[in-house]
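Listing 4. Sequential folding, example run.
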Amino acid sequence: MPTMSLILSTHLIQDAYHIACQYGLAAMDALHITAALSVGAEEFVTTEKKTKPMFRVSSIKIISIFD
């Protein structure tokens, strides 16, 4: 029987894959965004510049420290 953390991990990975495909994100960016969404975050702060694909994600406000 799978543990709860394994089930959640599998779910997060699947969600990250869909976000990566939908918005053209790199794997780690998709995992970070998905993790933030999974805990109910409304904002995601990054060192990425606004030209990066993660700023296409519409389900969470992406904030660059370079603003």
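-- end of first protein; second protein begins --
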Amino acid sequence: MTHAERSARAFEQARSCPACGDDEIYRSMMRGALERAFHWIWRVRPYRCNACYRRFWRADTRPRLGATR
């Protein structure tokens, strides 16, 4: 498998449900202070599948507010 194929596969998996493989996922609301802390420390967000309603976590790729390079 080439690097391009691996990259395409990783992108595809990141945009789909880990349980059923459906690609209709949406960001779920964080529940409580513990989940907000989890998000802040590990930079992940909760998502939910539109097909099976399973909730799972994915990396947050958006830059933090006030972040400078």
